[in-house]
Design brief:
4 helices; alpha+beta; 45% helix
């Protein structure tokens, strides 16, 4: 399932495509996962889903802040509202027993 199969608005798809393209070009991204509203069924309030960025290596605070500011800029430019979470692969795997990890694993859609 790719971006075009998500149940989100066209502006949200365009924003997500831009986010995906630029994050992959600028950071050592291992996986991008979209989850939450609009992923597998239509969102009732046209809300945007959450975006999980999993990097291959641990990022510094300033690198995570740079990613957040980048996504905020794309959100503003496209009128989207993606909520962002950034984890390195090792830290994300530590979350395996948590409800967030289970939700992402069960309902998330990997777009990279």
């Amino acid at each position: 399932m790719g971006i075009n199969n998500l149940y989100i608005s066209e502006k949200s798809k365009a924003a997500l495509t831009e986010i995906q393209k630029r994050l992959i070009a600028e950071f050592d991204v291992d996986e991008l996962v979209v989850f939450g509203a609009g992923v597998k069924e239509a969102a009732v309030d046209d809300s945007d889903p959450d975006l999980l960025v999993i990097t291959k290596e641990e990022l510094s605070y300033s690198q995570k802040k740079m990613i957040k500011e980048f996504v905020d800029g794309i959100n503003s430019e496209y009128g989207a509202n993606y909520r962002l979470m950034v984890f390195d692969r090792n830290t994300w795997e530590v979350w395996a027993g948590q409800s967030l990890y289970q939700e992402v694993t069960r309902d998330g859609v990997s777009i990279w």
